[in-house]
Design brief:
Mean pLDDT: 94
Number of helices: 21
Strand content: 25-35%
Protein name: Glycoside hydrolase family 3 C-terminal domain-containing protein
Distance between the termini: 67 Å
Number of domains: 6
CATH topology of the largest domain: TIM Barrel
Family: Belongs to the glycosyl hydrolase 3 family.
Strand order of the largest sheet: 1-2-3-4-6-9
Keywords: Hydrolase, Signal
Radius of gyration: 32 Å
Largest sheet: 6 strands, mixed
CATH class of the largest domain: Alpha Beta
Pfam family, one: CBM_6
Low-confidence stretches: 1-30, 40-44
Helix content: 10-25%
Structural class: alpha+beta
GO molecular function: hydrolase activity
Shape: globular
């Protein structure tokens, strides 16, 4: 860009001189005037219009597009967009991770995990956090513009439907309103406030219905229209409508049988939500999966063409190597699968964002261009990290007012647990510049006159080979080395500290050098890692006890589930005694006896007995307990940690338990005996100070849970069941009593809620209701309170949620202060998706409005009557999509074609779909449907009345079409004596895989 700056200056100078020339001089010297004009025009022509910051963006973009060759345009479709030297255009990279701080670029301010940002319920704070992250992104960009790009891949708005999802820490909440409010705030902060220029360009991840890591590129999320519209899309749409994001990333999964990277909704729906151009990007290898794991297209050219036509503008493939992407797009062009106009549209979207970032403008216009590396981890950013860590803490329980602890009386504190004196980063975390651990935070708060001791509460063991009688030794060098069973006795070199993370996962720390045991590339075990790390976590093991009392070591790194990985998971001994992964089953594994050299629980109990207070910090390790590409099988707190909590609580009744985790924890253990319980996410560099602020009453905890905490894993539906309504996911539909409810969180004060007031008891479908109440801090402590407003629709054609969050405000109250809290509720927001007419509808019904401090602690209520409409009986005389059913059992939603449309697959006898309240008049005589069967032979679809086992009114026979995308129209007679009036119609599938796209009754 800089080589054009002199031209810009010359052009403006020439224009200014021309305007200053006296008119008489111009007339007196026509030849010279003509020459000057020609010179000026030449200079204007020499300066491309796309460099003219005064021109409209659309004009500049069109000019630049017109100057690019087809090869140059194709090259820009890859994540690493190359430089175009002849136009003075530098390289540009899409995708810099910025989930809760700048990631993977070196030391940067690390804020709480996204789930922790969600637990603040504080959009104003999150906007400030986003602004700081945007500043640091600019700082890193100044260091290396080609590598540290300004297109940020954040925030993640996938809702936290299932706490077992490995990426739970990346999202904000299970609720669409809370998710969208936090995401909008973070996005606005990342972008900045300038009306013209972007500080950074945030990208929402991942569209859509993505909550499973297991086999994620092959699994299809089967999601009916109501759930998509009322739940999934509501996290993405508000952020885009409010201009808080410049792009969207497609997800790995298939949605109703079609890979999201070729979903028509990208162009047709997602782009309609934004008034500005969007840059839609693929996830890493997402386009490659179309011909790879998904086998959806036969050739890369077909995949590239379909991806671009669906709306993806940038291919995230093959790391920095754009060659394969360029080749596939060129092949698609050569084969007529793509037109140059298709490429132009995609490149135009990309260029729009680059223009808004100020890349092609002269220096001095963009207010963000002066931000440099000095802002990274600035003191003000550290303070904000502490504030965010403090505000995300949730006080779950506080019996007998155990908290806050009195600093003057608490002079000896035992900080206990595997997380007592360490802080962990997650996969998308930045590198912490410093680490204020719980122990350090407490020690700093109490000062040097207090005694603060840390005990990890973990066992130290030695392993002795049963076959050789030798103990396993580890090298003492800091670089580590191979573990060998070679010692006759057990000393420090033979000692290992065992961290129990639950689910059968442990990590082993070698006492010899303080390093973790890891599986090396040659399959041997080595002690050379500071912490669990890497894409495939090599530091996860199982210490499994056999029936004979001996133990075997099992390698549990998350790559063992990959189909290309060998079957060996168990540790054996080589001839020289070296430990190596070399057996498929425990039968072939080396057996060890386990000597407990030091009992971690005993040491913890001894410390707790001597202390004025015990603070037990337990929870998860982000690289071990699930993460991207690795779902959890359980949300239960590790058994070893449970035992530690019980022992310490029994030893010291003044015990506070801190749960530090990336997800909700179930409690099969006796939580009733724990007097005080706090939850925190892995909250970054200031975790310890924030925790100390709350423990000693310098700050009243006021975070709220952004997810339901279920009592047991047994309450959770299948991870593959995305139907919140039918499966009972989230507080909206879950009927069992939770361990801790959505929105729950205590403070050190008490609040009184007045009766709820509404400005009108009756409102139209297009109206707005103003809701207000008075909230008073009746306690003696200044504290925030998160006032939450919910609604429930009493009557409806369809099942409605138990309650839905309609608004929230986090407000600060001085002791005794009363504040009037007001909400405005648009009645259109109370609507639901009507599958009978494919539109939003507001039904006539009474709605309960409820305010309180959580979804189950609702202290103030009122009601309104909405005058909307009554959904008429269904009309199936017109051709109706089979996917627009009202209810179902067993079926799967699939793609009707590779381009657009949904269909229904019945996979076994007894699967069914239902259409409620169908107007049949005096009786219908036939049914016609589009069906397909990839197999041979025939299968039936019965038309039943009233219920799945009701009277049979007709039958359709589907024969093999050879291809499931080959649809055949079939008809069958219907008994009009049964199919008359207004009835529920069931289509019940017989044996055999059969698909139905649409139907009509006449």
């Amino acid at each position: 860009m800089t080589q054009f700056l002199p031209a810009v200056t010359r052009r403006r100078t020439a224009l200014a001189l021309a305007l200053l020339l006296p008119v008489s001089l111009l007339f007196a010297q026509p030849a010279r005037a003509d020459a000057d004009a020609q010179s000026i025009n030449a200079r204007i022509e020499a300066e491309p219009a796309f460099r003219d910051a005064k021109l409209p963006l659309a004009t500049r973009r069109a000019d630049l597009l017109g100057r690019l060759t087809l090869d140059e345009k194709v090259s820009l479709l890859h994540q690493y967009q190359p430089a175009i030297p002849r136009l003075g255009i530098g390289p540009f990279k899409t995708g810099t991770e910025a989930l809760h701080g700048m990631a993977w670029l070196g030391e940067a301010t690390v804020f709480p995990q996204a789930v922790g940002l969600g637990s603040t319920w504080d959009p104003a704070l999150i906007r400030r956090v986003g602004s700081v992250v945007g500043d640091e992104a600019r700082g890193f960009n100044r260091i290396n513009p080609a590598k540290n790009g300004l297109n940020l891949w954040a925030p993640v708005v996938n809702q936290l439907r299932d706490p077992r999802w490995g990426r739970n820490e990346e999202g904000y909440s299970e609720d669409p309103l809370l998710t969208s409010e936090i995401a909008t705030a973070y996005g606005h902060g990342l972008q900045g406030d300038d009306p013209r220029y972007l500080k950074t360009a945030p990208t929402l991840k991942h569209f859509a219905a993505y909550n499973v890591e297991a086999d994620r590129s092959r699994v299809s999320s089967s999601v009916r229209a109501r759930v998509l519209r009322e739940y999934e899309y509501k996290a993405f749409q508000p952020a885009l409508e409010n201009g808080a994001a410049t792009g969207v990333m497609a997800s790995y999964n298939l949605l109703n049988g079609r890979p999201t990277h070729v979903a028509p909704e990208l162009n047709e729906l997602v782009r309609s939500w934004s008034r500005d151009d969007l840059m839609i990007v693929g996830d890493a290898s997402g386009v490659g999966n179309l011909t790879g794991t998904q086998r959806y297209f036969a050739t890369p050219a077909q995949a590239a063409a379909a991806t671009i036509k669906a709306g993806v503008d940038s291919f995230t493939e093959n790391d920095a190597n754009g060659g394969p992407t360029v080749a596939s797009v060129k092949a698609a062009l050569a084969q007529g699968l793509l037109a140059e106009a298709d490429v132009d549209r995609a490149v135009g979207h990309l260029l729009s964002i680059r223009f808004r970032l100020g890349e092609f403008d002269p220096a001095g216009l963009n207010p963000y261009e002066k931000i440099g590396p000095e802002v990274i981890n600035a003191p003000a950013h550290q303070e904000l990290a502490r504030e965010a860590a403090r505000k995300q803490l949730v006080l779950l329980k506080n019996e007998g007012k155990t908290l806050p602890l009195q600093a003057a009386k608490t002079r000896n504190v035992a900080v206990i647990g595997p997380l007592a004196d360490t802080l962990y980063e997650d996969w998308y975390s930045g590198t912490m510049p410093y680490r204020i651990t719980p122990k350090k935070g407490i020690a700093d708060r109490l000062g040097t006159s207090a005694t603060v001791n840390a005990e990890e509460g973990i066992d130290r063991i030695a392993l002795r080979s049963v076959s050789t009688g030798r103990y396993v030794s580890a090298p003492t060098a800091t670089t580590g080395g191979a573990l060998v069973a070679d010692s006759a006795a057990a000393g420090d070199e033979q000692a290992f500290d065992v961290f129990d993370w639950g689910g059968g996962n442990v990590t082993l720390r070698s006492v010899a050098n303080g390093k973790l045991v890891s599986r090396a590339g040659d399959m041997s075990l080595v002690n050379d890692q500071d912490k669990p790390n890497g894409w495939f976590v090599q530091q996860k093991f199982g210490l499994e006890k056999l029936a004979n009392g001996n133990y075997v070591l099992r390698y549990r790194g998350n790559e063992v589930k990959e189909s290309w990985y060998g079957k060996n998971q168990y540790v054996v001994l080589r001839a020289d005694g070296t430990l190596t992964v070399g057996a498929e089953t425990s039968d072939g594994a080396a057996q060890f006896s386990k000597d407990v050299l030091v009992s971690g629980t005993a040491k913890a109990v001894a410390a707790a007995k001597k202390a004025d207070a015990a603070v037990v910090v337990v929870g998860s390790m982000p690289f071990v307990n699930g993460r991207e590409d690795d779902d959890r099988q359980s949300t239960e707190l590790a058994l070893g940690q449970q035992a530690l909590v019980k022992a310490v609580t029994a030893a010291n009744p003044n015990t506070v338990v801190v749960l530090e985790s990336s997800y909700p924890l179930t409690a099969s253990w006796d939580a009733a005996k724990v007097p005080a319980l706090l939850w925190t996410s892995h909250a970054g560099q200031e975790t310890g100070r924030a925790l100390a602020d709350v423990l000693f009453g310098d700050y009243s905890p006021s975070g709220r849970l952004p997810q339901t905490w279920y009592r047991t894993d047994a309450e959770l539906p299948s991870a593959l069941d995305y139907d919140n309504i039918k499966a009972g996911w989230t507080y909206q539909y879950h009927r069992a009593k939770p361990l801790y409810s959505f929105g729950h969180g205590l403070t050190y004060s008490e609040f009184r809620y007045s009766p709820l007031r509404v400005d009108r008891p009756v409102v139209s479908a297009t109206g707005t209701v103003k809701v207000s109440l008075d909230v008073t801090n009746v306690g003696k402590v200044r504290s925030d309170e998160v006032v939450q407003l919910y609604s429930h629709q009493r009557t409806s054609r369809v099942e409605q949620p138990l309650k839905v969050l309609r608004g929230f405000q986090r407000l600060s109250f001085a002791p005794g202060q009363r504040r009037t809290v007001s909400f405005e509720v648009k009645v259109t927001d109370l609507g639901s998706w009507d599958v009978t007419r494919n539109k939003w509808v507001v039904e006539s019904s009474a709605h309960d409005l409820m305010a309180g401090s959580s979804s189950t602690d609702l202290r103030s209520r009122s009601a309104i009557l909405v005058r909307g409409e009554e959904i008429p009986p269904r009309d199936l005389s017109r051709v109706t999509s089979a996917a627009d059913f009202d209810d179902y059992a067993g079926i799967e939603l699939i793609d009707a074609s590779k381009v657009r449309g949904d269909a229904v697959r019945g996979t076994k006898a007894g699967d069914w779909i239902a259409f409620r309240g169908v107007r049949l008049g005096q009786g219908v005589r036939s049914i016609t449907a589009s069906v397909s069967r990839a197999g041979t032979g025939s299968a039936s679809i019965q038309v039943r009345i009233g219920r799945p086992d009701g009277p049979i009114a007709g039958t359709l026979t589907a024969t093999g079409t050879g291809d499931r995308y080959q649809w055949s129209s079939v008809s069958g007679a219907v008994d009009s004596r049964l199919a008359r009036g207004v009835r529920d119609i069931y289509l019940v599938f017989g044996a055999g895989d059969t698909n139905i796209r649409d139907l009509s009754l006449r």
